[in-house]
Amino acid sequence: MADVELGLVEGYYGKPWSWAARRDVVETLAPHGYRFFLYAPKADPFLRRRWQEPHPVETASELQALSARCRELGVRFGVGLSPYEIYRDFGPQAQAALAAKLAQLDALGLDDLAILFDDMRGDLPGLAASQVDIVHWIAERTSAGRLIVCPSYYTDDSILDRVFGQRPENYLEDLGAGLDRSIEVFWTGEEVCSREFSPGHLERVGRQLRRKPLLWDNYPVNDGPMMSPFLHLRGFTGRPASIAPKIAAHAVNPALQPTLSKIPAITLAQSYRLGEAYEYVAAFQAAAREVLGEDLARAVERNLTQFQGFGLDRLTDENMSRMRPRYAGFDHPGAREIVAWLDGAYRITLAEIEAT
């Protein structure tokens, strides 16, 4: 059995989960070894573009209740804050706004605080040094027990350089050298959505960061224009238990469908538990039965290729005429998520992402 801390980072674009769904996911995954939950949906404007403003009273109340429920279950609760491009001008006005925001977040009851510099312009001189200063400033003012940083360049994938500007030379090395060793750093791997993580890759990144990376695993997330027409349900592969000594923890970024996300999440726990004895199909079958029940799990397995291989845009009229009434006949939240997906309710456009 590999010893690794598992968690969930709700870091997708698109319609956020309901509060009831969040509690349900935490309650299901806690017995499988998931020990932290990070609230950071991209669609929460009070964590991103409007971060200077406090959360509405109702949202703050729900967050406090979720924090309390996590603690009851032995799960760490945290929030991911994206102070949008604050490193461009971290002067007195920005500092005052950030101090107020940290006080508001502390009131929620935080075990973890993540400062997310992802998906922002990064081709700026002194980027790493500016971010180090900001994070250390935050560390002196937050009551959270663990501080995590998502770098502007959180993967080797060159798509970030094309979209957000060429990464500064030695950015990771400078960030790692500057940050206090107690601060964790997120990493998504060789790609934004990595197909696998190897011990050698993670060891190299660990040397650059001067600490073990905390994996932000973009599976089974399905939140972009290209991914939202798919349901990622298969068991985890490409994450061998042998990577456990190379990472600080392993956080899963779930899909837009909370109930269905529990299926692959459970298989990841099985992969670490079973090591070389892990079989991803058998793990999927067991997790699907646990989450969906016998009959619905059997139906989902029968359509797994259509859900994850073909996707919504390649389903035929015949596929739709058979599948929709089949799943509409089940009184189960997982089946309702499938029906909504078939109806196009989870599609995400590029315009929606750019507006976030």
Give a summary of the structure in a few sentences.
With 356 residues, the protein is α/β, with parallel strands linked by helices.
Return residue spans where pLDDT drops below 50 for at least 5 consecutive residues. none
Stated plainly, the CATH topology of the largest domain is called TIM Barrel
Order of adjacent strands in the largest pleated sheet: 1-2-3-4-5-6-7-8
Question: Would you tell me the overall average pLDDT?
Answer: 96
| SSE order, one letter for each helix or strand | EHEHEHEHEHHEHEEHHHHHHH
Give a topology summary.
Elements: E1 6-10, H1 19-29, E2 34-39, H2 57-72, E3 76-81, H3 92-106, E4 112-116, H4 127-139, E5 146-150, H5 159-164, H6 171-178, E6 184-187, H7 199-209, E7 214-217, E8 249-252, H8 258-274, H9 280-292, H10 294-302, H11 304-310, H12 317-328, H13 333-342, H14 350-354
Helix pairs in contact: 1-2, 1-8, 4-6, 6-7, 8-9, 9-10, 12-13
Task: Outline the structure in words.
The protein has an 8-stranded parallel barrel. It has helices at residues 19-29, 57-72, 92-106, 127-139, 159-164, 171-178, 199-209, 258-274, 280-292, 294-302, 304-310, 317-328, 333-342, 350-354; strands spanning 6-10, 34-39, 76-81, 112-116, 146-150, 184-187, 214-217, 249-252. The relative contact order is 0.12. The protein contains 14 helices and 8 strands. The protein has 2 domains: 6-279, Glycosidases (TIM Barrel); 287-352, no CATH class. The mean pLDDT is 96. It is an alpha/beta fold.
